[in-house]
Amino acid sequence: MIKIMLVDDQELIRESLAFVLNTDPELEVVALAKNGQEAVELSKEKKPNIILMDIQMPIMDGITATKFIKATHPEIRIMILTTFQEIQHVIDALSIGAEGYLLKAMHPKDLIAGIKLVHTGGTLLPNDLAKILVQQIQPSVTQAVQAPTPYDLTEREVQVLECLAHGLSNKDTAERLFLSEGTVKNYISSLYHKLDVKNRLQAVNKAKEEDLI
């Protein structure tokens, strides 16, 4: 039996996940925590095999809680479970010993399969996130010698600009580039400033005129 603790500040998510996971005869949810501090305390008492850990929570966030738990109970395997798709969260989580990074929107069957994989010693990352992680951490010689883009746009800003050109919303852009919506909004604001435009249409038109995309 794989003992699981769920850590999330939203009661509905905790209860829903507990219901889904308890339908599998090999899994047992032994504890629920609404913040990182509770998770640290309950990990000592309940000694779960697997912890599904949210990131953004009050009192203590998931990254900090993971650090504490890994320091005292390194045998507990922790899977970061979140709606945030910013790649830096993946790097932070893996650097402190987390064994997996999952999105809450994934199918329950995939979640259960992922838990069993991690329990047997595996590390789990969605394929798309893994590809971006590799791109983020490997040295980019090509970028080092590449001439700066017109208007001093970064590679990520160009990617956001291309999404705007395809008519994607902030939410769709965030999902495609594995960013939070807030981060996408920041990139769009930066684009407006650099291109000296006031809206999406002007940004896209200028980008096409200047061969930026």
Automatic annotation (TrEMBL):
Query: Where found, per UniProt?
Result: Cytoplasm
Q: List residues modified as 4-aspartylphosphate.
A: D54
Q: Does the keyword DNA-binding apply?
A: yes
Q: List residues of the HTH luxR-type domain.
A: 145-211
- Cited PROSITE patterns: HTH_LUXR_2, RESPONSE_REGULATORY
InterPro entries in UniProt: CheY-like_superfamily, NreC/VraR/RcsB-like_REC, Sig_transdc_resp-reg_C-effctor, Sig_transdc_resp-reg_receiver, Tscrpt_reg_LuxR_C, WalR-like
Which keywords are on file for this protein? DNA-binding, Phosphoprotein, Transcription, Transcription regulation
Which ranges carry the Response regulatory domain? 3-119
Q: Which SUPFAM superfamilies match?
A: C-terminal effector domain of the bipartite response regulators (SSF46894), CheY-like (SSF52172)
Q: Which domain of life is it from?
A: Bacteria
| UniProt cross-references to Pfam families, sorted A to Z | GerE, Response_reg
Task: Name the chain's protein.
Answer: Response regulator transcription factor
Q: Which organism is it from?
A: Ectobacillus antri
